[in-house]
Design brief:
There is one protein chain. By secondary structure, the chain is mostly helical. The chain has 11 helices and no strands.
Length: 267
């Protein structure tokens, strides 16, 4: 009871703990870099301290390169991710609702799903006439399979009794899909969308490191080749912020579109 009252008295306690954990990690990073800590397996001899990373971040913020790199990465992510949302949800509903579609589509998808996105890069370069399209394709593949699988899971786990009741009351297939199947599958779909966004960023950065000329992944790899080690961490942090922000937007949109999933606040 005392712990519950403490949380009630201090509504910002959770944010304080989260901020404290971040500052604790930064302090450990500063200490390890300053001491050039060598643990045998892991060494911090060449890892720049946080103050150098902050200086490099300020330089990047003042540079026009930032918008060029971020704009290129955002365009590739949302182009590939948007296509994956359309195809992933459509395929997921078809597989989850139709046995014939499941027999037709699921075997090749399950065969292709374990192939890492990195393995697709050489083939995508051969297939598409431009490196831009190949990177969008890699991003598309990264998001496609999580969206499909979570959509199939959500559709397949809708209570069949609700569907049977709606049919007995004269519900049309379109109405059943709109009023029962879609709301029932929505939580799983949103989960797949959030996972797909994360994998999109992972695949995009990998593709940009190999075949990009602009983008955050290219910026990070270029910093490594030029031995600008602080810029490597800046690029990593930008990727993390962009990925976290896009995932937050998706989950926030999901909560807005699914008010029935919001927790009930009791006093």
């Amino acid at each position: 009871m005392a712990a519950g009252r403490a949380v009630h008295w201090l509504p910002g306690a959770r944010w304080f703990v989260r901020a404290l954990s971040i500052f604790g990690c930064i302090a450990l990073w500063q200490l390890a870099s300053s001491l050039h800590l060598n643990l045998g397996v892991v060494t911090f001899r060449n890892v720049p301290p946080p103050n150098e990373v902050v200086q490099s971040a300020i330089v990047l913020l003042k540079s026009p390169k930032l918008m060029a790199h971020v704009g290129s990465s955002l365009w590739r992510v949302f182009a590939g991710y948007g296509a994956a949302v359309v195809f992933g949800i459509a395929f997921g509903f078809a597989i989850g609702r139709s046995r014939a579609a499941s027999d037709l589509l699921l075997p090749p998808l399950e065969l292709l799903r374990p192939i890492p996105a990195v393995a697709w890069i050489p083939l995508s370069i051969l297939i598409f006439p431009s490196s831009e399209m190949s990177m969008i394709f890699i991003t598309f593949l990264g998001a496609l399979f999580p969206i499909i699988l979570n959509t199939v899971h959500g559709v397949a786990n809708v209570d069949r009794r609700l569907i049977a009741s709606a049919r007995s009351l004269g519900g049309t297939p379109a109405a059943i899909l709109r009023e029962i199947v879609l709301p029932g599958a929505a939580p799983s779909i949103v989960t797949g969308l959030a996972i797909g966004m994360g994998t999109s960023w992972f695949c995009l950065v990998t593709a940009e490191m190999i075949s990009g000329q602009f983008g955050i992944g290219y910026y990070t790899w270029e910093a490594y080749t030029l031995q600008n080690y602080a810029d490597i961490i800046v690029g990593m942090l930008v990727i993390g912020l962009l990925g976290m922000g896009s995932s937050w937007l998706l989950t926030t949109l999901g909560r807005y579109l699914m008010p029935w999933q919001r927790p009930v606040v009791t006093r």
